[in-house]
Amino acid sequence: MIKAMSLTASQVADQLRGEIIGDGTIRLTGFASADSAKSGDLTFAETDEFFAAAEHSQASAILLAGAFAPSKKVLIRVQNARVAMAMALPLFFPQDESQQGIHLSAVIHPTAQVAPTAQIGPHCVVGERARIGARSALMGGNHIGRDCLIGDDVRLFPNVIVYADSQIGSRVTIHAGTVIGSDGYSYVLDAGRHLKVPQVGNVIIGDDVEIGANSAIDRGALGSTIIGQGSKLDNLVHVAHNVVLGRHCIITGQVGFAGSTRLGDYCMVAAQSGIADHLKIGNQVVIGAKSGVMRDIPDGARVLGIPAMPDKQAKRQMIAAQHLPELIRRVRELEQRVRQLQS
Predict the structure, then answer these.
(1) Which of 12, 90, 188, 329 is the most buried (most CB within 10 A)?
(2) Domain containing 334: what range?
(3) 122 is a domain residue
(4) Threshold 0.85, pTM exceeds
(5) Of 18, 73, 14, 70, nearest to 43 (Cα)?
(6) CA distance 258 to 235
(7) Digit-coded pLDDT (tens) for 302-329
(8) In what order do the strands lie in the sheet with 61-65?
(9) What is the CATH number of the domain that holds 150?
């Protein structure tokens, strides 16, 4: 991929596997929404409304999919405008290159293995027998516990903590303040006191995972807590001990998973939902926002509400609840009429 701040429209089209319509030699220097675009920017349009806004903007070119009316601007036609936008942004806003090497303030245990191309930033600690892969970057203030394995091209933003024995795959991004491998929450009542159950498992994070800021992934009690390949977790997500998240799941902010629940592949969990322990959630399940999941969910189901139920049923109940004040008023009127008839 070309990483440059100035590209011709034809170069951008080639990178996006798109078709150029108009002057392909025009130079593009940025990417912006229609309402803030200036000359030299590329913008995008998914709908007729967006296209009209892009047409009247200062943008020099429009990224679009489908058939739109002829335009006075340069067009780059692609199969999916939003996917193409995600591919175009790094062309104009390339990720900062990691500066390989070890900062003087970092503490690296003699038995640790750090790839020569890795970056170990200021005030980082790398524990006994830990391994840091090629081109991986610890941005600063990171603590990597003993026997941790970190793959290639991993980026740990400041103050990410990785407890002992954790395994992180390649091309993983973990944002600031997240903790990987802290103790699971497990106690038993003994003689009137809560006795802690030691958590001796670990965390395994697959390739191409991204975890947002200030999240917590607890280590397994005995086995592993697993985040599947390609899954994306938002900020403030809590994954308890021995939870298994499948591949390519989308977990949005403030979601919590209780212990030992298993989530299938390609699931979506919307914000502020809570999933109880020891449940089995199937593949391609969609859980609506602020849902409380207390039972197993089969493959492909869409659920919503507290307790979570099939989304159509939940929506019917929500609509019915909106009519309750009117229903109560009518019942009171009927009761009054009955009393009048009885008197």
Answers:
(1) 12
(2) 318-343
(3) yes
(4) yes
(5) 73
(6) 17
(7) 999 999 999 999 999 999 999 999 999 9
(8) 19-21, 74-78, 61-65, 41-45, 30-31
(9) 2.160.10.10
Say yes or no: 23 and 143 in one domain. Answer: no
Residue 11 is encoded by which pair of tokens?
A: 């170069």
Distance CA 145, CA 149 (A): 9
| Residues acting as catalytic residues | 241
pLDDT tens profile 59-85: 999 999 987 767 789 999 999 989 999
Residue with tokens 């973990």: 174
Identity of the amino acid at 25 = T
Residue 65 phi, psi (nearest 5): -130, 150
Number of domains in the chain: 3
Q: Which residues contact 49 (CB under 8 A, 6 or more apart)?
A: none
Task: Say yes or no: 149 and 266 in one domain.
Answer: yes
Look at residues 32, 66, 92 and tell me which one is the last residue of a structural domain. 92
Domain end (from 92, 123, 140): 92
pLDDT digits (tens, 9 = 90+) for 246-293: 999 999 999 999 999 999 999 999 999 999 999 999 999 999 999 999
Residue type, 114: V
Q: Do 137 and 117 form a contact (C-beta atoms < 8 A)? A: no
Mean pLDDT of 155-169: 98
Nearest CA among 99, 116, 151, 101 for reference residue 130: 151
Report in angstroms the alpha-carbon separations of 257 from 174, 245, 269, 270, 304: 19, 10, 10, 12, 16
